[in-house]
């Protein structure tokens, strides 16, 4: 059964002070099966991030459907779902990772990951145990666990970002340009993290500019310009 289906998707943005409406993306159709990783490619401004933010419901599209096979609610259209259901899905089923790390000041890496677990209603003892496990799993240096992340490198911040999302064991994880501005060594680490998530059964959708990074990693690649798949398992 299809795990996520984007159907007839379209989104416009209004620039109020110019009294203009810009069509960001239109007539997008693709689907993902459970456990797959779909990569979305296209030039800047083609609407790649708009799609991910709409799946997460940060944006509300103008047309189409985004059908998601929820563990809690069954098949649900994310564009029509009540806000309380969206909040539940963000907390328990759908994660979002961007290239930016926006966190509370004077909060250590360990505390940030623990907070992600506490948000799910689990006790402090469980939060501590799971935070330590996921920080180790995603290879964040132990000496950084009790350090404020504003001092971290780009690769370290990204690993923490993924750890904060992954500790909730999301059924669906959205990756919005996670390799942007990273050096090659950091990109290798991110690729390894994604492979671990796939192995653990997480379904993923990601936006990337780095075509080489995606090669052999994605099960499907969707090209925004052609509005179709370009390959299965490789970028061409």
TrEMBL record:
Domain annotation ABC transporter: ranges: 4-236
Name this polypeptide is given: Phosphonate C-P lyase system protein PhnL
Family note: Belongs to the ABC transporter superfamily.
Entry keywords, A to Z: ATP-binding, Lyase, Nucleotide-binding
Pfam family membership, one: ABC_tran
InterPro entries attached to this UniProt entry: AAA+_ATPase (IPR003593), ABC_transporter-like_ATP-bd (IPR003439), P-loop_NTPase (IPR027417)
PANTHER family to which the protein is assigned, alphabetical: ALPHA-D-RIBOSE 1-METHYLPHOSPHONATE 5-TRIPHOSPHATE SYNTHASE SUBUNIT PHNL, LIPOPROTEIN-RELEASING SYSTEM ATP-BINDING PROTEIN LOLD
GO molecular function: ATP binding; ATP hydrolysis activity; lyase activity
Highest taxon listed in the record's lineage: Bacteria
